[in-house]
Design goal:
Number of helices: 11
Structural class: mainly alpha
Largest sheet: none
Distance between the termini: 26 Å
Radius of gyration: 21 Å
Helix content: over 70%
């Protein structure tokens, strides 16, 4: 967990320098290089770490244990995010020009549309896998009688999310009418992102509260990280919507791009906490035997 956030802190420090350069000079050259090269590498690194950690957590449960299936779907969700990061990276580098050349050689080798495929795989598909996993965890908690209901603050948060969802649905219905052209298949699938994120947030909050009730600190931090990752993803989607509506200034638009790095680090930290909860007690026993 510490290494994930150390790398994230270093990455943000470099990003701060690039952002300050953009504010002072007004040039996008350095900040574009930061997001295109270092940002893409950061997403690849964090999603790869998330996939590895999720697989290790899955391996820590026997085949007949209920949580193994849950972590199988979490691993599938992590795999989806890693594949999406790889596809988007190839699409970004595909269009990156090589010095002295009109276009990148990758533009000849790689097909178009990789970014759109990556958005679907890393968005709704990964969220569906994660929602199935969290549903499985809630079923297990209900079976053992530790599932705890939502608090008043939780209901207020859900009401705010629901209001935003109704507003988005109304906006989508408006775009389905003439004279607007019919949406593409990719656009229609991506419309599922925010409703799925809202479902994931409720699930993660419910699981975390139930784990806290049992008194498991590291496990509660695991599900807290999923809740934070979902909230920051919703914030990123909201910033995209606000940018499209012209509600954000140019410096704020550039600043909003940094949200996604925090979300990626939070997603990677969640299985890291679960793995720590599984391995640290064994390490302490081994040290005592020495």
């Amino acid at each position: 967990v510490r290494w994930i956030w150390r790398v994230c802190a270093v990455h943000y420090a470099i990003g701060l320098a690039a952002y300050l350069h953009f504010l002072v000079t007004g040039s996008y050259r350095l900040i574009t290089w930061y997001f295109l090269i270092l940002g893409t590498l950061f997403f690849l690194l964090t999603t790869a770490a998330e996939l590895f950690l999720a697989y290790e957590c899955r391996a820590g449960f026997e085949a007949d244990e209920p949580m193994r299936l849950a972590w199988t779907f979490i691993a599938l969700s992590s795999l989806s995010r890693f594949v999406a990061a790889a596809l988007i990276a190839m699409d970004h580098w595909r269009s990156a020009p090589i010095p002295g050349s009109a276009s990148s050689m990758l533009a000849v080798i790689l097909p178009r549309g990789l970014e759109q495929i990556g958005e679907v795989v890393g968005g709704p598909l990964s969220m569906i896998f994660l929602a199935i996993a969290l549903s499985r965890v809630l079923q297990i908690q209900r079976k053992f009688g530790v599932l705890r209901g939502l608090t008043h603050i939780d209901w207020v948060l859900i009401a705010l999310i629901a209001a935003c969802m109704f507003g988005e649905v109304a906006n989508i219905l408006r775009y389905l009418r003439p004279p607007y052209p019919p949406p593409s298949l990719t656009e229609a699938i991506l419309w599922l992102s925010d409703p799925l994120l809202s479902l994931l947030l409720v699930q993660a909050v419910l699981i975390r509260r139930s784990v806290i009730r049992v008194g498991l600190g590291l496990l509660s931090q695991c599900w807290e990280m999923y809740a934070i990752a979902v909230v920051t993803t919703l914030a990123g989607d909201a910033s995209i919507w606000a940018s499209g509506k012209g509600l954000l200034s140019e410096p704020l638009i550039a600043l909003s791009w940094y949200i996604w790095f925090f979300s990626a680090a939070a997603f990677a930290s969640a299985p890291a906490y679960q793995l720590a909860a599984m391995t640290l007690p064994l390490q302490e026993v081994a040290m005592r035997k020495r």
